[in-house]
Amino acid sequence: MIHLRYPQQLPPSLTETSSPALSIALTVLVALLALTGFGVYLAFGPPSKGLTDPFDDHED
């Protein structure tokens, strides 16, 4: 039987951020990744079936 020992408390470096700038940078990074993922989903996923090509609509 394997017994795993967990520390009673997390190290202080994991429980508090060192600066507010790190929190802001991580928030911006997560927002950017979320918006990029949503854009890829709209462009190539099921919602893309309703998209039309404006250049095909105006043939000269």
**Number of helices, counting only DSSP H or I runs of 4 residues or more:** 3
The mean pLDDT is 81
Distance between the termini: 76 Å
Output the helix-strand order.
Answer: HHH
Q: Which runs of at least 5 residues are low in confidence (pLDDT < 50)?
A: none
Helix fraction by DSSP (H/I, runs of at least 4): 55-70%
The quaternary state of the protein chains shown equals single chain
Number of distinct beta strands: 0
State Rg: 23 Å
% residues in beta strands: under 5%
Structural class: mainly alpha
Bulk shape? elongated
**Sheet with the most strands?**
none
Task: Walk me through what this model shows.
This protein is an all-alpha fold. Helix content is 55%, strand content 0%. The protein contains three helices and no strands. It has helices spanning 12-15, 20-44, 54-57. The chain is elongated, with a radius of gyration of 23 Å. The N and C termini lie far apart (76 Å).
